[in-house]
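Obj: model holo form, ligand = 2-acetamido-2-deoxy-beta-D-glucopyranose.
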Amino acid sequence: MVRLTKCSASIGLHILQLMLIYNFSISAAVLTYDGCMSDSAHSYTVGGWCFLLYTNSSWPLNTPTQDGAQSVCLPYGTLAVGVTYKMLNTLKYRNPAVTYPHAWLGLVRNTSYSARNQGWYWRILLPTGSYATFPAIVSNIPWGPGDPNNYAGNEDGAILVQNHGVGDVKTEYTSSSYGSQQMAVICQFAPIQWKYLPNGHGRFAVPAYQIARTTVSDSTCVTQCHLSLFCLSFAYNPTTKDCQLYSVLPQDPKFSGDINVDSSYDLYIRDGMEY
Ligand SMILES: *[C@@H]1O[C@H](CO)[C@@H](O)[C@H](O)[C@H]1NC(C)=O
Ligand SMILES: *[C@@H]1O[C@H](CO)[C@@H](O)[C@H](O)[C@H]1NC(C)=O
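Output (holo structure tokens):
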């Protein structure tokens, strides 16, 4: 309990630093956290993040490509990670104000794998110009019926299609393969401040769920999770200072069976997650 209070105080300091950076954002602009939060018809808020289904009628058909989509949400947000099955499945039923939109996610595929459901990873352009990457948990994505099907060959990216689900497509979204389409993007915006709640003890035994592992102070561990696009939970060992960030939730029944009971690790989750 004392440790948690100390933790919170350190987070407070960090929040102040972030505010100095983010203070320049124009709160009324569409592609900001505030803009996302004020457009509930086209957004979904979970774990503090706001995800916005965005399109712009001035975009020519079949643009942007996936590469172009990477910079649409910058600099106050990024292209989205499907943080949980529910997040993508919720946005699947939102209408981004155009007919039958095809919305880019930051999901791409390494086509050197022959199996269609292999090689998928999240690849997100950050405001710094570098990419954050993490292998996707393919079973945790609401694919459309029959997808991924490599329909046009060498399909190396993925979109969310309204009322269908996630489908694999070529990142160069040519009309010869897919017809003329109005494109959309899903943006991800992080709050400046968020809560991380204690959630029992243990750690995940599956390496595929681990985003990062470092030896750091408790407040640094929280900050690392907060600044990651993928982090839903973390385990911290106060004695060894081992910090493990995870892309899944301990209470999600799809993953809870993979927790190693280990009383030396405290588990924390992002507040307000839904799976
Ligand atoms: C669409 O894009 C134009 C040109 O970049 C921009 O001026 C306009 O504000 C955008 N519209 C919306 C609704 O974001
Ligand atoms: C794709 O996978 C192959 C085989 O595992 C690997 O050698 C290559 O580096 C990967 N490419 C990318 C861009 O990750």
